[in-house]
Please model this.
Amino acid sequence: AVGLRDHHVPYRESTLTQLLRSSLSGQACTSVVVAVASEAAHTEESKCSLEFGQRMGSVRTRAAVVVGADAGVEEDDTERDLEQAKAELSKMEAAGYGEKFGAAALP
Model:
């Protein structure tokens, strides 16, 4: 949608675009790496990945310059958030979550 200059991006239609929402909104510099498998069993998924990469190649954004922001404070906040996420992940692993994906696992 962004590549087609559509002002509405259908984020709800894809988990991936939901995850990338802040990066695709035009406020950040974004790089995308697309990984594909050469095995025939993965042909369809690789094709979808390559098509996604091709669409991403047409997206143009301009990063917003934040005036007055303190990179040190931002870094401290990010470090704190990361530590909180790691602690939460440890609790989840201790509770038995995250071992393996089952056949009924949600994306």
Observations:
- The two ends are 23 Å apart (CA to CA).
- Residues 69-97 form one domain.
